[in-house]
Write the structure tokens for this entry.
Amino acid sequence: MRRRTLYASLLLCISLALIGSVLVADARAQYPDRPINLWVQYAPGGSTDMTARALAVGAAKVLGQQIVVENKPGAGGAVALALLAKAKPDGYTLCYATDSSIVRNPQLQKVQFAPLKDFTPLIAVCAVQNAIGVKKEAPWKTFKELVDYAKKNPNKIKYGSGGSGSGMHHAMAYVGFKEKIEWIHVPYKGNTEAMTALMGGHVDVASVGGEIYPFANAGTARILAIAENRKNPKHPEVPTLIDLGYDFANDAVMSVVGPAGMAPDVAKKIQDAFAKAAEAKEVKALFDQLDLLPILVVGKDYEERLKSYWTRMEKGLKETGLIKEPATKPY
């Protein structure tokens, strides 16, 4: 009798386990069954915010659910990523982030997440054409003229960036280190605010992303240098920092990431949705307008890119003396 009872209990447990696995599989198959949250690292109005919202519209159509975009700016993108690291990995909380905020920022300052452990890298969709520029009325016509002035006038130049630890903060810090320049960094919550500060005369230089191009195209700002490993095709006259003799290229991309531990099938649905959204003519037109270069790096390939980027960044930051060791461990 006792054996029959134990046998019956065992069958019940197995049955419940099988039912549970079926229910979980069915729940995943139905993903998404409610709106998805997409957090943006920076303040509204910038290129990161604009592309996130455009991609969200297209991806929502593919997924059949609304994607709610919410800005969570601060600390060069670290605020949004710290919150994401604590979110449930169910596919309903995502972040539109730059890879530099995942890799560079944590090496320069302590953050509340493990950069290469706490996230599921999903898909990178475009590369940023970061640049350093000034107002049209500024006396410096070239980057060399700006550097020469800054060297002769310590702490006279104030430059704005999208935040402490951001890629363009690093660009100016790198040049400052190499040239032994003392200039003042003014961090903002996003590149849009940094550009507003430049145009309002609150800073002398803006070290930002694509937000500078509309002003340059309108003739109200002048781009002095591109902080990428390639020239901007629309501004071939502007040298890169590498052209100017500085061994620096930001090489940042914009991407969608989720918390660590996401189910592969859910991740695949998100990747496919955003890849399709990036192909829409409206999104491609926006990329072109913001001087962003379309790319596609998905899943494991993006994960490997982040690991490689971490190694290169750590080496570069140590060589220039900006850090002795990363402020945050990667794992």
About this structure: Confidence is low (pLDDT under 50) at residues 10-28. DSSP finds eleven helices and eleven strands in the chain. Residues 131-226 form a domain with the D-Maltodextrin-Binding Protein; domain 2 fold (CATH 3.40.190.10).
